């Protein structure tokens, strides 16, 4: 797997700097050499070296104290700070200790054998790589990702970046525990590691957030294979019952339950041939935007520069059809009402006092509310135009032909009526039964009215 190229800054007299550079470049590092601390400061305004090699005293320089420069670096540079290797001519232990007190990370003899210097530099780079790795997966962490993207931005070779994460990982952790979630993240890391060759980079930003850098012509194939392989292994991380049911049950405050799809992958792809990026933050931002677009699918999916317009057009088309239908269903006198007052809620509640309370409360929020105590009447109302956007349903109704459970199943088995949100606000204690019947949300009675209003608002806005 590819790693970002280490950057080394040497501050030394010209001849010695050239000798050191020729050896250190053989370690695979990018080496910059300057002859003064002033030149070094100019470079440090845009360069982020992994290691700075400097002398204890620059010959012929009035401000050439390397120890003071170490102190300056420690005080002014923001993390991640470079490793400071000070070359000291003295063999006196006290002087060398003082160099450490000024901020040096390592103090070596001066002159020093070039091969010894190279070995010590490699040791520091190895330690730095371990320090910058994500502790869960041992993949390069945020600092290495930034370095990799910065190097891509100045490269003349085309590249693509894949922003990868897991959908619904929070609910998975709440259901099975953080340790189980970590195992799922490690499984994704193993897939990425297996798919990445020696020319590709994979980093782990945090939690379930990964980044892959590859060639543009391979990006979409890689994304497709990541989705395929993850879907093959993800079922191993669920109990058999949850796999058969096909969803998890998320538990919120006040006993609120909702169905949550099983874990899937979302990937956003950007590439340097389609867009000019200004910084590594620009790359991450656009890739994540595309990843969020992929999350609108209920399955593992990827979105790239090439299909983002198609995705947005499809979503805009769906919204426009819905809006046109709403306008056609309005009478001319209703065209001036607000969007909220055109949102229709059907309350199916056998308790007259509760039905009245719900109707008045929802109406005060600006919704158009209809009330019935019959499942049959509710089903007919749902089929008639204009249809309700949401049904607030009590399951325990003693109807002659249909109760609340059957009403919910009938609604969700119909392709068109299934688009109506169904909230089961019921005194029945079995939330799993309500969700299996097709309810989008389960609220146990007695419920908190502000919580109900909040959940209703969230559902209606999500569509």
What are its keywords?
463 residues; Alpha-Beta Plaits; 3 domains; 7-stranded mixed beta sheet
Q: Evaluate the radius of gyration.
A: 31 Å
Annotated CATH homologous superfamily of the largest domain: Reverse transcriptase/Diguanylate cyclase domain
For the biggest β-sheet, the strand order reads 9-10-17-16-15-13-14
Annotation field: number of helices = 17
Shape: elongated
Instruction: Specify the biggest β-sheet.
Output: 7 strands, mixed
CATH architecture label name of the largest domain: 2-Layer Sandwich
- As residue ranges, the low-confidence spans are 317-338
CATH class of the largest domain: Alpha Beta
CATH topology of the largest domain: Alpha-Beta Plaits
Number of domains: 3
The helicity comes to: 40-55%
Structural class: alpha/beta
- Which percent range describes the beta-strand content? 15-25%
